[in-house]
Amino acid sequence: MSYTKEITAHMLEAYTAEPTRDTVDALAEKYGKSVKSIIGKLSREGVYRREIYKTKAGLKPVTKQELVAEIASAMDAEEWQLAGLEKAPKQALTVIKDFLYDEDMD
Description:
By secondary structure, the chain is an all-alpha fold. The chain has two domains: 5-44; 64-105. It has helices at residues 5-17, 21-31, 35-44, 64-74, 90-105. α1 (5-17) packs antiparallel against α2 and α4 (64-74) runs parallel beside α5 (90-105).
């Protein structure tokens, strides 16, 4: 079964009103389609937005390299001068970055 104009219009209305994965799941169940099929149709219609990954704490993930860049900036150093630091545990890099930026505030 292909998507009729009516189904497509309803899908677009429902998804633009609430662009979440729950909406996609509900549409898939309602129309007996796979989630991938619904996402594909919404993508072809130009309305689907992929959900952005968040950490368990609900924050945007930060890479170790980004942390090292922030540390270098806080120290007025070049990133290459901190070569190898990105191999440290992420928690340790976060502590260093937070310490350096807290010191800047004093």
